[in-house]
Amino acid sequence: MAPVTNAGLAEAADGRSVLRFEEYELPPGQIDLRATLGCTAPIDLDVGFGKGRSLLEWAALGRDGTLLGVEIRRGLVERAFERLGRAGAGGVRLLRGDFRAVVPRLVPGGLVRRCYLHFPDPWWKKRHRKRQVVSAPVVAELVRLLAPGGEVCVQTDVPERAEEFRAALAGAGLQERWWSDGGPGARPFDVRSNREVRCEAAGVPVYRMTFGKPPPEAGGPQAREEGRG
Ligand SMILES: C[S@@+](CC[C@H](N)C(=O)[O-])C[C@H]1O[C@@H](n2cnc3c(N)ncnc32)[C@H](O)[C@@H]1O
Prior knowledge:
The protein is 29% helix and 29% strand. The chain is built from seven helices and eleven strands. The chain has helices at 53-61, 74-87, 99-102, 136-145, 159-171, 194-202, 221-227; strands at residues 5-11, 17-25, 31-32, 43-47, 66-71, 92-96, 106-107, 112-118, 146-156, 175-180, 207-212. The strands form two sheets. A nine-stranded mixed beta sheet has the order 2-1-6-5-4-8-9-11-10, with helices on both faces. Strands 3-7 form a two-stranded parallel sheet. Residues 47-50, 70-73, 76, 98-100, 118-119, 121, 133, 193-196 line the site of S-adenosylmethionine.
């Protein structure tokens, strides 16, 4: 399994930040989103960002908080890092590793506003299905990380996977906010990924869904707890 590494701007001797890709291997155990990775809440996640178009588009939105991109392939992390640096894009942190192994280590829970999964690998062959990123254990960890009201956004061009992802998200207790069966129409996401653009140019249908973590009910147990003293 690839080590979990944190990509950051290297510091030059004169204190300037220089555009050089460096990886720092993280010690085993918990990975604190704020103290270790330098994220500021609210945090968005981009899992398997590939060539990184969605990271650049996110940065261009000028949002508050941090986008944490997690990608398993070093070459892609390096490429995205360089593209972000050239664009002068801020607010994005990159982590190299297998998201399935990384996600249970991320703490604290409750800080993630949005998790994007743009075209998680389709794994056509049955023997490769064990590499699938979206699974019940991973979705359970995402629920833990989501802030109340936060959401998971998934898109894919594989209809069978779309149905599986939809069932996994609903099965974890998330509420469906958007489902599109690949027909033309509005899209709920605020950024585009490389594969999304390619699919649209080729006229390939894209299945999209957004599932949200319900906010604590007004007057419910958590709200009453918070209201106490
Ligand atoms: C089909 S590509 C989609 C890339 C990009 N999101 C897009 O829409 O253009 C899937 C990406 O997920 C990455 N990936 C696959 N398994 C992963 C895992 N376990 N953890 C993190 N990234 C993973 C792959 O390296 C690849 O970049």
